[in-house]
Design brief:
By secondary structure, this protein is of the alpha/beta class. It contains 9 helices and 15 strands. Bound molecules: NADP nicotinamide-adenine-dinucleotide phosphate.
């Protein structure tokens, strides 16, 4: 099979196209002929060995694929954690979900890691109540564009505020359904969020950057407000003081999708079916941000870390 392999950690140049032996399905696994590998911002952390968990080399990156099951011919998406940037993969059967007719491989893949993350941010983590104001940072990206779209139909949110770092992406976030989109840069962000919420503190923030964006967003929360941390794209750690949370009745919540693998039926399959049904009803339309040939995985990742993408990015592994 063809695959992207890393034999060292570093810049995009460490992502090399290689020919490797075909995978063999172990007990409980099935072989999938991959059509598309989904890119995720976390792939850029993995490439540098700066992700939530550390990796060993050599490594085939890629946490999710769409493709065809060898044994049944069914179209599926699969959460694979590693090994997705390849033409074939052996995956545990419990990590597969069938793609319904009428939904493209790319749309289904966009709804997997990023859609499930957006779904759990609203439902499992923030428990958004009807009418609450929700702030979605990086609202034009993969997770963000879906979190914005799902805020009202899934969570019953009131005002939806997106942030993005360029005018083009702020316009895109408005297109996804945000009421207002502002620059997410940390400077005076607390005041700018309150202003964007017509002078009131906000109820919920989804933070993916950490650093100043996190600190300023925490301070913009109303009493009983929640900030959900699902990414640290700045790589800047934050310290939270319990006294601050107590004095202001504010909550900080963490989320990592891979813990959902502990209860795949309830935490992965059921929400994914819900997302697929919402896509079929037109409540959510995954934004396809771009597709690169497998050999250009490095350039595709650069699009993410260069903050240029709108929506989901893919590798066409057969191109
Ligand atoms: N916890 C989980 O289980 C989980 C699952 C999926 C994704 N995530 C996280 O969610 C975030 C979005 O992931 P994604 O795959 O959908 O990617 P994405 O949103 O399509 O791309 C990442 C976005 O982060 C922003 N960004 C990039 N570099 C940054 C920097 N140095 N400082 C501040 N912002 C920066 C950019 O948006 P702007 O420039 O417009 O701000 C960029 O578009 C990432 O942090 C990712 O790690 C977490």
């Amino acid at each position: 099979m063809r695959a992207i392999q890393q034999t060292e950690f570093g810049g995009p140049e460490v992502l090399e196209l290689v020919e490797l032996a075909d995978p063999v399905a172990g007990p409980g696994e099935v072989l999938v002929d991959v059509t598309y590998a989904g890119l995720n911002f976390a792939d850029t952390h993995t490439r540098q060995n700066e992700y939530v968990h550390q990796d060993d080399l050599p490594l085939i990156p890629g946490a999710e694929v769409a493709g065809v099951r060898r044994d049944t011919g069914e179209r599926v998406v699969a959460l694979c954690q590693r090994g997705g940037y390849a033409t074939q993969i052996a995956v545990e059967e419990k990590r597969l979900a069938p793609i319904p007719d009428g939904l493209s491989d790319q749309a289904a893949l966009a709804l997997q890691i990023q859609g499930l993350t957006a779904w759990h941010l609203h439902r499992t983590c923030a428990h958004v109540a009807p009418g609450e104001t929700v702030v979605v940072h990086s609202g034009a990206g993969g997770v963000g564009s879906l979190a914005v779209q799902l805020a009202r139909p899934l969570a019953g949110a009131g005002r939806v505020i997106a942030t993005a770092s360029s005018e083009a992406r702020r316009e895109a976030a408005i297109g996804f359904g945000a009421d207002v989109a502002i620059d997410g840069d940390g400077e005076r962000l607390t005041e700018r969020l309150v202003e964007a919420n017509e002078g009131r503190e906000v109820d919920v923030v989804f933070d993916m950057a950490g650093g100043e964006q996190f600190d300023q967003s925490l301070r913009a929360l109303a009493p009983f407000g929640r900030i959900v941390v699902c990414g640290i794209s700045t790589k800047q750690a934050n310290t939270v003081r319990t006294g601050h949370l107590l004095r202001n009745s504010r909550s900080v919540i963490g989320f990592w999708l891979f813990h959902c693998l502990n209860d795949p039926e309830r935490m992965l399959r059921a929400p994914l079916v819900d997302l697929f049904e919402r896509a079929a009803r037109g409540e959510v339309e995954p934004a396809i941000g771009g597709t690169w040939p497998l050999a250009e995985a490095g350039a595709a990742q650069e699009e993410l870390s260069g903050r240029r993408n709108t929506g989901k990015l893919f590798l066409d592994v057969n191109a």
